[in-house]
Amino acid sequence: MVGTAVDEPTQMQSSATVIPPRLEVAEDRRGAGEDFAALPTEISVRKLDFFYGKEQALFGNHIEIKKNRVTAVIGPSGCGKSTHIRAYNRIFNLYRDQKAKGEILFDGANVLSSQIDLLDLRRRIGMIFQKPSPFPMTVFDNVAYGLRQHYRLSRSDLSNRIEDALKRSAIWDEVKDKLHQPGNALSGGQQQRLCIARAIAAEPDVLLMDEPCSAIDPVATAKIEELILTLKSKYTIVLVTHNMQQAARVSDYTAFFFQGRIVEFGPTTKIFSNPAEKQTEEYITGRFG
Amino acid sequence: MSTVELDASPSTGAPRGAAQAAPRGHRLRLGDPIFRVLATACGLALAVAMFGLAGVLVYNSWPAISGLGTSVLTTVAWSPVDHQYGALAALAGTFLSTLVAMVIAVPLALVIALLLVELVHPAVARVVGTAIEMLAAIPSIIFGMVGIFVIVPFIQDKLVPWLLSTPLGSLPGIKPGAQFQGGGVSIFTAGVVLAFMVLPYITAVSRDVLKMVPQVTKEAGYGMGSTTWEVMHKISLRYANSGIVGAVFIGLGRALGETMAVAFLIGSLFTSLPHSLFDPGTSIASLIALTFSEATDKIQVSALIELGLILFLITVVFQILAQAWLRRVQRSTGGRA
Asked: Which is deepest, A198, A229, B309, B337, by most CB within 10 Å?
């Protein structure tokens, strides 16, 4: 029942918008049929409120991010998707007027507590941004950035790890002859995979992806989606996306956000085939958003 | 021309397209060429001014160039009474005072710019930024006078005695010559005041360039677990490096050519090379300013113009070197996105 039902909304959407070619879908990847409670939890968010100055943007968010699963965060623009994941690595702390309240438990500690080591937190929770953001240095130095910062490595170990990270990011073949060229000379899609390589080189546990494909073309998007599926064996991935087909294609669990609240969270199959909430159904069928 | 063709064949073409094309075509055809001619003229005017300037300098300094040969560049002293027209003392003073100014001003300006962009509250940044820009509006003669009343006594009474009491005092180039008055009026003093004069230029341009580093690039740096310092020096400064070099060269050009403040403070010693940073000396610009009105001899006037030509060439060479360096940096780092 599950395997067939899930494809329906996906195809309905695809007739309306231009989307990248469909990927082969593995059966085991939909979060259905597994015991959610029994899976190890990577991040557990409880009663998360978020404020931009006096304006509240998130209201009591509650969610469990499971280890080695892809959790998609969907919802209309301005619903708080990005705000939500930007709390996980406390990147919002760069801005004076942004505040988070509540609990984000990661590895037994509350990320929002003042005692947390921010630098190590951000090494362990890597982030990929909407716009590819290579640093103004060579491809090699980009990937070496986190390694040099957090580890003491010999020269040969460093280049082995860089090669490994680039291979795991499915970009090695395209850049192996360009390692000493500037990172921003690559194409947009390559830059985004370079950023993924840069993040995974530092050996994180979690990858936060904030609409990683919204600035790149469909072919490059397909490559990144494929990459997400291979990366989840090693990392826990939280994927914010505007693109519901993308959520359906790559995620195991999906959270639907609306006006700062998590309206529904569950296995991706269920969210897309048989949502419990009316708002979720209206959104995934394209009636608003 | 093409509208005529379209009109001539209304039966085949789309009449709607032809009707729309006609008025637009007329406008474009007049506007673009006029603008192109104007823009080309303005661009050419710039080039003409530049080469004209060089031409005038060469023409007027020709008597000195042909009459004195290379002796201008090999003679130390400027002493018209003895018919010595040497530029070496002035060149040394120019370079040393500029060097002192840049060594002080560049790090200071970068730190202030980073502070304004990355660290302080935006309201504070606005106030401090405005204050720094106002520093640039102060006439140079005022810098010269403040230098005489404040910096000269400080260096003479405090800095030089302190330096001489430390091991630094035994380094070459520190102890002022015995015949001079303790280092107050000196190349170093001129350099310090020059540093304050060029500081606002370097700071303001560096700040604007650093502001252009995309927020997402900085966030990506913090997202990798970098400290603010690491993001600033590994990412922001690299991203902005070409603009910062530009800022430094604006300051350098200003320091090389600054006349009045330097003339006040450098001591106007035209006849010998400095043995110490705290010795008096002269610079090309202040030498020209101070002696031009008294220059009666034709060869003397011509030699002064030759000094001007030398200063002009120095700035051009620095500019070319800067451009070449920038191109190299951009190739290896990608420069701006």
From this structure: A198
